[in-house]
Structure formats: C-alpha cells, structure tokens
Amino acid sequence: MSEFSRTYDPRLLPGSRIDLEASEAERTALAKRFGLVRIDRMQARIELERESAGASAKGRLQAAIVQSCAVSGEDLAVVIDEPVNLHFIPARGPSAPDEEIELEAEELDEIEFEGSLFDLGEALAQTLALAIDPYAVGPNAEEARRKAGLLDKDTSGPFAALAALKKQD
C-alpha cells in the first residue's frame, strides 16, 4: 500500500481537474521512504482525461522538502516544481521470460495498472522521488570540503592516502 494512495477508475472519468495534497501523516511516511528530513508540502494540480484504454494525467507536482546536504549533512530546504504527463494503461499480461520488449518514446511515460483502478497518488510519489537531487549541496558545502581536505587536488585525489603515508616516512 502506498503512503500517498489516490485511486481512480478510468471508466468513470468525465475529464476533470483535481487538486491533490498529501496530509501530514502521508508526508512523514514519504519522507521516511525517500530518506528526507521532512516534506513540508506536497500538492498537485492534475487534469485527468479518459483515454481509449486508460487515462492520462497532466499537470504539475509541487513540493517543499528538507533533505540533508550531500557534503555537510546540514538540513537543506528545496522546492520542487515538476511537470506531470502520465498515461495509465491496463496491464498487457505477462510476457515470456526471455522475450525482449522494445518501447517507443511515447510509451516511456506509461504506467500499467492491474484491475480496474490506477493509483495516481503513487505515481506522483514516484515523480517526487525522481525529482530529488541525491547530491544536492548547501551553502556550507565548500567549508565542509575544505575542513575534510577535499578541495586540494594533492590531498583529495585517488593517491592522496598513499602520499600522506609517504610524507610520514
């Protein structure tokens, strides 16, 4: 079960704009799942349209997150604003184990779903996860690098440890 589940039946979509917002409990669970300090806000404005075989979801996902700086470990506030363009299609059934599947460019944003419902909330959660920069650095990253001796090529290259041992002799 997804931490941010919002299911829809594509057969019942007349075509509408929906606004989704994660609750505090959902944001806390998603922050834990994605290794974030916290998620202060997560919302989306989506146009849902029925398609012949499923549904399309187009709009924007916006979030305010706090993650750890990749260098200093300090809290780093980040604003995410991502376009959303997803197509939900019924599962095609199992393919043969060794069968090679070739995807066209327009199929890359397709999400298969089982049964009669698709989970837009989980797709948005995954969109958020893909938008997070795992190597984001904050304003104190340079100072942290300098303290660790990582800015100087002589002290931070692949042979820095060997050079340090040589100096001790």
Describe the fold and architecture.
A hairpin with a 4-residue loop joins strand 3 and strand 4. This protein has 2 domains: 132 residues, no CATH class; 29 residues, no CATH class. It has 5 helices and 7 strands; from the N terminus they run ββαβββββαααα. The chain has 169 residues and is α+β, with helices and mostly antiparallel strands.
Summarize the structure.
This protein is of the alpha+beta class. It has helices spanning 24-34, 120-131, 141-148, 153-156, 160-168; strands spanning 7-8, 16-21, 38-50, 55-68, 75-90, 110-113, 118-119.
- The share of residues in extended strands comes to 25-35%
Average pLDDT reading: 83
Number of helices: 5
Number of domains: 2
Largest sheet: 5 strands, mixed
Secondary structure layout:
Layout (H helix, E strand, L loop, with lengths): L6 E2 L7 E6 L2 H11 L3 E13 L4 E14 L6 E16 L19 E4 L4 E2 H12 L9 H8 L4 H4 L3 H9 L1
Parallel strand pairs: 5-6
Antiparallel strand pairs: 1-7, 2-3, 3-4, 4-5
List keywords for this structure.
169 residues; alpha+beta; two-stranded antiparallel sheet; 7 strands
